[in-house]
Structure formats: structure tokens, C-alpha cells
Amino acid sequence: MGSFGRWISQVVAVTSFSVRSLPQRWGSSVAAMFGIAGVVAVFVGVLSIAAGFGAAMTNSGSDDRAISLRSGSTSELVSGLSREATRIVGETAGVLRDADGAVSSAELFLILNLPKRSTGTDANVPMRGVEEAAFRVRDDFEIVEGRSFEWGRAEVIVGRGATVEYEGLELGGTLEVAQQPWRVVGIFSVDGGIEESEIWGDARLLQSMYRRGDSFQTVLTKLESAEAFQSFQDDLSSDPRVNLSVSRQSDYYSGQSTLLTNLITGLGYLIASLMAVGAVFGALNTMYTSVSARTREIATLRALGFKSSPVIFSVLAESLLLAIVGGAIGATLAWVVFDGYRAATLNLQSFSAVAFAFDVTPALLIQGTVVATTIGLIGGLFPAIRAARTPIAIALRGL
Question: How much is the pTM?
């Protein structure tokens, strides 16, 4: 057997003995595993908030849909467009047309204060006033319960996320809009997008109640293709009759999600880092205890001709095994507890509430595993080096 083969056999022998002796150190090993599991569970859980919020925003966007706001507006809430401006948008080249005309939807955007089911505190819930084209421009729109509202009547349909999060939005319920009761007659979905956080009603009726005249906040337009966007944007930018900011819908919602997503992600890494420091010390303590308990055994192996590197490898392998098991427990716990959990938060750029579901993605589980592995490597490295460097004579005396 060559030198490499002997080294492999030594690594296997020392590592297998180290793993088999784990039950003798069960208390400290379990403590280290669950410390790492806690780090991974919190890390994945916090980042699943950002992933779920980002997914809700991303699912709302489409490259072949354009959103037009008043120039300089940062969100629909602060925009304002005349009927003439919305008509010009619909007549611009590149807009998709069907049997009913241009697939271009002029819409109102309002904010209602409604209590959250979970806490009873008020939240800024978006209400969208729409016309007939709103249902044609969104090809992922679907009524999942009840029916659509009737034009000219105080009826609304509610997004699937909103009906879960806020009181009074269940099918058949009523809410007060402009000091008048409106009946919830349907629940809709838009493929998990942000619009599932909204309430929709007749734009003309809302214009009258809120004394908006014939004005709108935004125009959502379905284009002939994603490639038609650039010429559509150029035509509107150069049209002296309007002063508009035109974006792809996907880019608009991506920009809307950036601030909050970055904030949550940064918070997740900060919390995980602080917890990881404690987990590293726990792993160090466990592995130093392991090395101390096996001092004579390790010295005997080295006296018999075992090299230092298999000893280092065995200690690292034990530490990594504890870390990976702990990481798997933490990742599983995060997936069971957080994945699909529904919540609502404030979109910091539109100041309206967004209902979304936490999303424990495969990428987050992989990141959690990497965190656990890193903790295991750091926690096992220094005890492994100590085990390999302790003089054989001193180790055999158990000092």
C-alpha cells in the first residue's frame, strides 16, 4: 500500500473512532447542534420574509406591460393624470389592441385604513379604482371566489392576500369607503402578485365619491411585445402633450421592493452573525472537550505512527458532522414554521401595506447549510490544531 493509501486508512480509522465515541459526549454535542440549528432557523426565517416580499413584487411585473405615471412621481400614490393623458397613452404605437380596443387601463390608487386580523391595529390598505380594461391588461387575473363587482354599484372585489390579513374583507362582508358601505362580492388572485393585497372597485364611482373629477393616478398598458417597450417609451417621452414617467411594470415593482428587501436582508445577516458568534464558541467548547477527553487516545495513535493530519481531519469531521446535523434541523424547522406563513408589511416607497407569504427557497436552505458548515469549520479548526500539536509525551501523561 502506498503512502497515500496508508494516509487514507489512517483518516478512516481515526475519524470512524471519533464518530463512534460521540455518545460519550452527548450532552455537549447536542448543545452545539441545537445552537447551530437556532442560528440557521433564525437566519433562514428572517431572509424568507425578504424572499416572500420580493416574490410578491416580482410576480406582479411583466416585461410586456408598461406603467405610466406623472413625471417625477415615485409611486402611484403621488401621481396624477388627466383623462386626456390616459387616452394619449392608449393611442400610442406599440399598445396591444383587441376587439374592444386598446388594452390600456387608467386607474385610481387610494389608501384605506383597515384593522389587521392579527393585531387589530390599522394598516394602509390600497384600493384601486378600475375600468373594464383592467381585467384585459392583466392576463393572470382570476376570480377565485364569488363574482366580479357590477359597474355603478358600491361593490368591491378583494385580493386573496388582503382578505386573509384584514378584517371585514371576507366574502359577503362590508367595508366603509368615503363614509358609505361597500359590499365584498368576490375574491381574486393575480398569480401571487402584489395586487392580491388590494381592493378593487368601480373607478367612476370612486372618482365621484372622492371628488377626483376625471383624473387618475396611473395607466397600465399591455404592449404588443416586450420589445415594443422602448419605442413606446420614446414616443411618450417626446410627446409634448404629456409629461410622463414610463417604466416596464417588472422594473417598476423591482424598484419598489429594493429598499425593504435590502433592509430585511441586512437585518437577517446581522442577527445571524451575532448568533453565529455564540454558536462558534459553543462548537469550540464542544470540540475542546472532545479533544481533552481523547488526549491519551490521540497521543497513543500518534506514537503508533499515525500522522498529525488524520487527527486534524478527524476532529474537523466530527465538528462538521455536528454542524451539518444542526443545520439540517434548523433548516427543516425554518421550512415547517415559516414557509407559506402569510403576513403584511408596509412598502416603504408607496406607504401602503403589502400582503405576502414567507418563502423558504432552496437558495435560502443552501445558504443556511453554508452558515452551519462555516460554524463547524471554525469551531473544529483550533481544537484540531491543538490535538495535533500537543507533544506526545505530555499527552500520554494526560496533561
Answer: 0.72
**Other beta carbons within 10 Å of 143:** 14
Confirm if 139 and 109 have CB atoms less than 8 A apart: no
| 176, three cell numbers | 366603509
For residue range 26-57, list pLDDT tens digits in order.
666 777 788 888 888 888 988 888 888 777 76
Q: 271 with 46: CB under 8 angstroms?
A: yes
CB 385 within 8 A of CB 288: no
Helix (H) / strand (E) containing 367:
helix 362-389
**Set of cell numbers at residue 178:** 368615503
**Rounded distance between C-alpha atoms, residue 282 and residue 279, angstroms:** 5
As given in the structure block, the three cell numbers for residue 272 are: 445571524
R_g of the chain computed on alpha carbons: 30
- Residue 144 CB partners (closer than 8 Å, separation 6+): 160, 187, 188, 189
C-alpha cell at 156: 368591491
